[in-house]
Design brief:
There is one protein chain. By secondary structure, this protein is α/β, with parallel strands linked by helices. The strands form two sheets. A seven-stranded mixed sheet has the order 5-6-4-3-7-8-9. A two-stranded antiparallel ribbon has the order 1-2. Helix 1 crosses helix 4. The longest helix has 20 residues.
Length: 216
């Protein structure tokens, strides 16, 4: 097994996709699969799959392939889906509600413990059984409850002050839906950026490129 620091981020980013595909296979009653068959389903190569799994010790058996439920469980352990990382949501508007209902609807290894917004009209409402609190209570809540991760669904111009506060009270990682560069402001924290507009613009470029070729 490779040391954690030797495993490339590209391999790590493929793990959730493996986990998702194996979940689907398991739900369809498939118990055994070869690296070749899995590669064909995922659009990868068998050698790529074997390389990725070997980074974590390898899970297949010569002449048998992979036990789907067992491999799904092992990758889940690597991803930490059965853990409960204390997480808070900043921003309970339409995006925040949608994100919460999506990412906290199944086991992901994160447990939502607090929701905050500056809009007083939202405060007191419930999302997934958790009350929305005014942002003014954020610091004391973090000191008392020690969350580790924050999901940020607020405008970029509000992010600097909020992230300064969150890092100060012990937040170690962010799922960031704003355009604010948290990693630049706080190099020591972990950040996963989700830029929906960037993805749409990329798709627009690729779509237009295809249309232009067809018109030529």
């Amino acid at each position: 097994m490779a040391a954690k620091e030797d495993i490339s981020i590209s391999v790590i980013k493929r793990l959730p996709r493996y986990y998702r595909f194996l979940q689907s296979l398991k739900e369809n009653g498939i118990v055994r699969i070869s690296s070749k068959e899995l590669a064909a389903r995922m659009g990868l190569t068998a050698s790529q799959i074997r390389h990725d799994f070997n980074c974590f010790g390898g899970f297949g058996q010569q002449g048998y392939g992979y036990n789907v439920p067992e491999l799904h469980s092992k990758i889940g352990e690597i991803l930490g889906v059965n853990k409960e990382i204390k997480t808070i949501l900043i921003g309970a508007g339409n995006l925040g509600k949608a994100v919460t209902n999506k990412i906290f609807s199944k086991k992901t290894g994160f447990k939502l413990i607090g929701i905050f917004d500056k809009n007083e009209a939202l405060c007191g409402n419930m999302i997934k059984g958790i009350p929305i609190r005014n942002i003014n209570y954020l610091e004391n809540f973090c000191i008392d409850n020690e969350p580790v991760c924050a999901v940020t669904c607020i405008p970029s111009n509000d992010m600097s002050e909020i992230t300064d506060l969150l890092v100060k009270v012990g937040i170690k990682s962010f799922l960031n839906f704003s355009n604010f560069d948290i990693a630049m402001a706080h190099p020591g924290v972990l950040v996963e950026n989700v830029h929906l507009t960037d993805s749409l613009l990329t798709l627009g470029y690729l779509t237009n490129s295809t249309l232009n070729v067809e018109e030529e």
